[in-house]
Please model this.
Amino acid sequence: MQNTHTTFKSFKAFYPYYLKEHRNVICRRLHFIGSVLVLAVSAIALIKQQYSLLWLLPVIGYGFAWIGHFFFEKTAQLLLNILFTVCGEIGLCLKICL
Model:
């Protein structure tokens, strides 16, 4: 399993690398499912005021991503820059939807 520790100075430089690390279609779909479930659980927790559900968010989000990377992409998850990674995740989900 690869693990590249590269630093990026801009999202523009980071995003092509992010997409390269998410070439496998199953990995991309697992990321998408995890992201949608995170949004759904967040909404349910806030609407129903069941804030204890919020502890599930990292388990759901990282769980689906970890499975995608470990079993299908054969790469380590990207935690180089949390802001760039979240923006990359949003871009990846938009690519799937559009």
Observations:
- The chain has four helices and no strands.
